[in-house]
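Bug: token stream looks shifted between consecutive jobs. Job 1:
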Amino acid sequence: MKKILDLIAEQMRATFESCGYAADYGKVTLSNRPDLCEYQCNGAMAAAKAYHKKPIDIANDVAARLKKQAPAMFESVEAVMPGFINLKLSGEYLAAYLDGMRGGDKLGVEETGGGKTIIVDYGGANVAKPLHVGHLRTAIIGECIKRMGNFLGYHMIGDVHLGDWGLQMGLIIEELRDREPDLPYFDETFTGEYPQEPPFTISELEQIYPAASARSKEDEDFKARAQEATFKLQSGYAPFRAIWRHIMHVSLEDLKKNYGNLNVTFDLWKGESDAQPYIPGLIEDLQKRGLAYESEGALVVDIASPDDPKELPPCIIRKSDGAALYATSDLGTIIERERDYAPEEYIYITDKRQELHFIQVFRVAKKAGYVKPETKMTHMMCGTMNGKDGKPFKTRAGGVMRLENLIREIDEAVYDRIMENRTMDKEEAEKASRIIGLAALKYGDLSNQVSKDYVFDIDRFTSFEGNTGPYILYTIVRIKSILAKYEESLKTAQPQGSPAQAAADGGDGLPSGNICPAGSAEEKSLMLKLAAYNDVVETAFEEKAPHRLCQFIYELSDAFGSFYNTTMILKEENEEKKAGYIRLIRLVKDVLESCIHLLGFEAPERM
């Protein structure tokens, strides 16, 4: 289904052309003065220079012709000084457009993706470590980008890209050796099968790593042992590979549970280790082709361009001690992804502090021809989630907060708000608080621009009023309640199965038929906001801007609130008018539910 702005612009371009002007001047935008008009065309201002006419003369010419050519589309077409063309849609045309949304697939949203493959690299958790608040943004932003892309017809592949191959593995192995020296992995004479059961639980593993990390900062011998263990692991030493597999099994099980609590999923659970088979060939290839050269003992690739605004250092492919780096691993991963998926686009979502890293990786990948010149490579740089002091969010004790504890805190805050009203029993309130809490957490993050830092304010995020997740959910729940009451009134007035009831039933207990033209300013404002839905979804994805989707549903919820407060929906005596209201608010609910699904949360039945 075409976007309403495109339909209006098509008509405007045709009218400019029929008046003897270039069609390109017929661009239409949303009005920035809704008190004067709904849409606006400023093309006459630009056309005046090309045709040596006054802008108002061109605007008058086009406006007069447009009234004759499209009387059904517009309620009013007005040329105003110095040369603007102000437009208001007719109520009938707008209502018909919304009916098209109701009857269309995906509520009228076009699948513009055409099946193009896009890999989204988000999550970036390290195994053997618990998820903390620093993992929140990349996870929920990546999930939203993936969902929007799938909705628009792209083939989205989400990869968690785990940190599973670095020094932390050697630290764990050596700490485990000192704690459990009798394990067969540390017996060089052992020749049997290694145990299937891991020698630690997730809780023990999460205690082992920080202890080993702290120890390595004070004990140089231990650190050297860990480095040697890491080298042996990466060289294929069987006992350490067996421990590594245990670490991966225990960690993945826990990570999947915790990401699941965020309603975040991945298509691929790949890690740095999966890139390792490609690294020797990658380094050899870069050297053979003269792209990599030695500098102070390290192997580097120049990535600077003459038009760079600042000097960029070369990308280090291999350190002087022979170790590969994150850049090497990421390039190996790109080679693997090109082999397996050949995507048209890559999207990486990380902390903004990794900006230089991805500039280097992308440029090496393009310079070496590992990706096509036309392949788009995007780095979405996330700002940080801060406390009220403006610094990165911490626990009350000053430590990094585990993500599961943050989720628990926000759920408890929502639960307390629900119980203040005493509208639910304890069990229902606990279930609802988990649903609403997730909405509060995700919306609180996604409603901010990705690149901006924001303050995590649990009191504001869990409020049922204002620009918050709970407010959006409350709007949906309120509409559900109205629809349920209306359906019940139909059953009472016309028993189920009667000819009158069957004629009124649209298949879901609600009336068949069409949305009526707006009868008030509030109703038309709501309808105009609904009509922007497919444009907003497409723009939010193209700009990689989930906050645009959040802003849209907040404005839509507000528009519904104004309509609800000025309209006696269920008390309307004219049955056809009442049915029209019901069809309209059903569409509002469907659009809101579609949007929150893209954002990664859902609505409860009651609040």
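Job 2, same session, no restart:
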Amino acid sequence: MRERVLGVEGGGTKTAWALVERDGSELLIVGQGKLPPSNFRLETPEHLRRIFRELPSQIDRAGVFLAGCGTAEDRQSLSRLCAEIWPNARIVTGSDRESGLAAALEQSDGIVVSAGSGSSVTGRRGDRIERAGGWGHILGDTGGGYSLVIHALRLILREYDLHREEMQFAAKILHALSLNNFDELVRWAQTADKMEIAMLAPVVFESAAGGDARVMEIIESGAQVLSEYTETVAARLHLLAPKVMLLGGLFHRDSIYTHAFRRRLKKNLPDARVATVERPPELGAAWLAAEMSDRVVFQPKPPQKEIQNLAAALTEQRNPRSENLEKLSSRALVELFVEEEKFVQDALHGAVVGLSRAIEIVTESLRNGGRLFYVGAGSSGRIGVLDASEIPPTFGASPDLVQGIIAGGATALHRSVEGAEDEEGAGALAIDQRGAKAVDVVVGITASGRTPFVVGAVARAKSLGAKTILLTCNPVVAVVVDRGPASATPATVDVDLAINLAVGPEILTGSTRLKAGTATKAALNIISTGAMVALGKVRGNLMIDLHTTSAKLRDRAVRVVAQLAQCDYDSARNLLEANAWNLRSVVDKL
């Protein structure tokens, strides 16, 4: 039998893994993926356990290399934790520096410069290792994403304080975070973690590429520090013409950083051979675990079958009525959009029975102390978060009662988070981290019916005994209803209720923010509003639990009381003022 080897590399922004099979002199990749962050110093042991439990379990060896795992004591602690998860596997642990070094150099000499959310420089000559940087985001990591963003945010505020100048870069940052002013930015920064701050690095690089000289100075400064570290490590190892390998998201994603580093390094190390690491660190981790130097053979990702399955989804088909879209006049385009809306209405009419049952399921759960979770990715996730966020101000409910979960977290609400939807384990972890219980209900929202993040979340919720609902716009997706988890196959989604909104192909092929998004929003409006009505939060068609937190809402509350009490406006206002503007209290006394 082939030996199964798992490689894991964890840091401040993600946990990347690769499962390989050892076939003679080769390591054949059979699976890869990404899960939430697993910095050894920043995450709790229980958080690490939850992540590791989502990784492949049937393995012979594991190499687990995490940021922050720097001491012998750290290695021992991590090894003990891994032994709980994989008791029969041979395990090697260490720092992400080591897996990066293995991915870049295998057994050869050279220097690895890593720049992701953090940064570090590690060199090797024979058995000797030299390091620089990598002291964590509080005291070090200069030149990493977190450090660059912090310097850029400080620049924004400094320029505003000194010159009352609002830089164009500041507008980009506020837009990226959906904030309105600097005070909101400061409050956000005070509670944001390392990952949330580092995720703004693309905005920094976009501004530099757009010609912002002051932001470009920050990038040049980061590249300078990494260059100085590289030169120092080379000198300590007596490497005159070192192989210098660049690793991490900043170098892979932003060529401007690679060019800045190369340019500065060449001044003092003109013979250095600089290249970008092609092999990901998780394969370096697997290579270390396998204790071999043979080559890794890459298999196509994703498998062709998955591509064909997605292509078969109704929402991915071309709409014959819009094949000449770019040739239409504005008037004709609008008329086409309006005409296509009839398919949304038809889809909702066809889902009346399912939506009615969904209201009953959600109502029963909430009445018994449960919560409602919407889970989605991309447009579907944003629609779910939107509906959840509207429940507290509309119905006076706790923000915990209805919660939206989106692949990629808060960042994905306003910026695309690449690959966030591709991991079932990440969806399962999201359910775990919200503390889902059997009394809760989870609504998975996926236009194609196949989004791995959603499938994983629904499956985990099902295993916990929670009620599960799948909302899809692809009626041909395989769904198993009212059966146990063991009945589901990888091609099916096992749920208590499936609601199919058959809106047909989009006007813009595959853009499910259009008809699919409209139908999805209407469906969620129906489910949440129907449940709130059933829970007694409405009198007639009037809101009676709304929070009077603004002039508009206080005016609405006065009009509600005036209509229910059949009194004039001033009398209604006096009633509310006498009850500290508690609308429900006033209505209950009428």
